[in-house]
Design a protein that fits this description.
single chain; 526 residues; alpha/beta; seven-stranded antiparallel beta sheet; globular; binds alpha-L-arabinofuranose
Length: 526
């Protein structure tokens, strides 16, 4: 890594209070904002999650009736207490790869009659003790917006529309009556539905070429919207940027499904596969690019099919995932609730998670839904072990952003030091995004430098900074520092002090490898 404008570092960090010795400060970074340069309203659904029937995400994750920590409905109170702080909005369910073999009728009705099934996506056993009704009950408790992915792998368009009737139909017909019989006369009102999952992936149950998936998706979409025309549909876009069908799949599908589609999905998992922290932290460039390319494809398709409809982006799986991304890690060996894909996250991963969120905010005009994959145990911010629970490093960026997300994204111009990364081109050492809310300005800053503290000056035009309402950050002793069950507090949020306000500018100091979220009280300026 070539850090431009840096002095030679000798820096000491103390993990629990984050004082650092001076002497390693990079050249100043200036951030320019203007209240008139608004990208778009930040859709609250950008801060969504994903709960899949895989490993210990559902069983031993959110749902463990036999645990002493369970509430009267079997939900683990410690887990849902910690999830509540993340204020997730849209919650995608039941998969993922699981969705492509799932028959929703197996998961409703009296639990003793629900069938135990072989689950082929993760070669496990599915007990079906948690299904649609339990998910909706949990979603209501958590204030989540349910988002259901139907089975377009081994399922049929008719089965998909029946599920819509079960969830949304007023009582009086077969499947809505079934719901009422299962305890809820009131419809569930599920607004967002996914037309399958990663159907472009050869690993997917029922994977077919784009032209065939497009027919399935269009048929299901018509039946589903005819059942409830208030729903919104997410069509499967490319699951990976590396697949040979990348973008060509998206074009074929969107052209055929046309205006039945409201959103196209994007998925992205990243990792430090070459043990190069500087390069890894620059991956945000590639996330920005993935969003822009997919948005470009949507606009292109809209023009080609002469549609007046604007298709938006649902980034409905994203996270860091590479240590446990292999066949053995998703093999449940014919057992229930195995320890599958339980990635252990470190500080650099938490910076990358913040980078994803910055990228979504910077593209608030086109990305309307995003779902962290996933929420508990499986590539998740929260891990359980018996009655214990651990908040991993990636929990903390989610907390910082969750509390500061309402408003309009502002264009964020960064001027300052940067470096040329090996794989992702030039990045500024500071990554930034900003949201203008009611009487407040939220700034999100990531210091990618491994060695140097940063001085960041924020200059907003048309906005008078009155005072700091709140300022928090996290960092850690090294890029690979982790929270563990034995030492759970290495990475946690701290108050960020010493923010100077002068001459309509704010000056902030950030330690190396840190994420900060600052909210200013503001007034309009003439
Ligand atoms: O989130 C884990 C898996 O990753 C999902 O089941 C699948 O959609 C993706 O490949």
């Amino acid at each position: 890594m070539i850090l431009l404008g840096c002095k030679y570092p000798t820096l000491f960090l103390f993990p629990h209070d984050y004082h650092w010795e001076e002497g390693n400060i990079m050249d100043i970074t200036r951030i320019f904002l203007d209240r008139e340069f608004q990208i778009g309203t930040v859709d609250p659904r950008l801060f969504g999650g994903f709960l899949e029937h895989i490993g210990r995400a559902v069983y031993e994750g959110v749902y463990e009736p036999q645990s002493k920590l369970a509430d009267e409905n079997g939900f683990r109170q410690d887990v849902i207490g910690s999830l509540k702080k993340l204020l997730f909005t849209a919650m995608r369910y039941p998969g993922g790869n699981f969705a492509s073999g799932y028959h929703w009728l197996d998961g409703v009705g009296p639990r003793t009659f629900r069938p135990v099934m072989q689950e082929l996506a993760s070669l496990s056993i599915e007990s079906n003790q948690f299904g649609t009704d339990e998910f909706i009950q949990l979603a209501r408790k958590m204030n989540w917006l349910p988002m259901i992915a139907v089975n377009l792998g081994t399922g049929t368009p008719e089965e998909a529309r029946n599920w819509v009737e079960y969830c949304n139909g007023p009582v009086g017909t077969k499947f809505s009556n079934l719901r009422a019989g299962n305890g809820s006369a009131e419809p569930y009102g599920v607004k967002i539905w996914g037309l399958g999952n990663e159907m472009d992936g050869p690993w997917q149950q029922g994977h077919v070429p784009a032209s065939q998936y497009a027919i399935r998706a269009q048929q299901a979409a018509k039946l589903m919207k005819d059942t409830d025309n208030s729903i919104e549909l997410v069509v499967c876009g490319s699951a990976e940027i590396g697949l040979p069908t990348y973008m060509e799949w998206d074009r074929t599908v969107l052209e055929y499904v046309g205006d039945y589609a409201d959103y196209i999905s994007l998925h992205r998992y990243v990792g430090n596969t070459t043990s190069d922290t500087a390069d890894y932290l620059a991956v945000t460039n590639s996330i920005d690019q993935q969003i822009e390319v997919t948005d470009g494809l949507c606009r292109y398709t809209q023009a080609r099919i002469r549609s007046r409809k604007r298709y938006y982006l649902a980034f409905d799986e994203w996270n860091v995932w590479y240590r446990t991304q292999n066949a053995e890690s998703v093999n449940g060996h014919g057992k229930i609730a195995q320890h599958l894909v339980e990635e252990e996250y470190n500080l650099e991963d938490a910076l990358v998670v913040a980078g994803f969120l910055n990228s979504f905010i910077r593209h608030a005009d086109v990305v309307k839904i995003a779902n962290l994959a996933q929420i508990v145990n499986v590539i998740a911010p929260i891990l359980t072990r018996g009655d214990q629970m651990l908040l991993q490093s990636i929990y903390y960026p989610l907390v910082l952003y969750a509390q500061r997300r309402a408003g309009a994204a502002l264009q964020t111009i960064v001027k300052g030091p940067g470096y040329e990364s090996k794989n992702y081109g030039f990045v500024h050492t500071i990554d930034a995004s900003a949201i203008l809310g009611e009487g407040v300005l939220h700034n999100f800053l990531i210091n990618r430098s491994i060695t140097d503290a940063a001085t960041v000056e924020i200059s907003p035009a048309g906005i008078q900074l009155k005072s700091v309402r709140s300022a928090e950050m996290f960092s850690g002793p090294s890029a690979d520092a982790c929270n563990t069950f034995d030492d759970p507090d290495t990475i946690q949020t701290q108050t960020l002090g010493n923010i100077e306000l002068a001459d309509q500018k704010a000056t902030v100091r950030l330690p190396p490898l840190s994420v900060a979220a600052i909210t200013f009280n503001i007034e309009d300026k003439e």
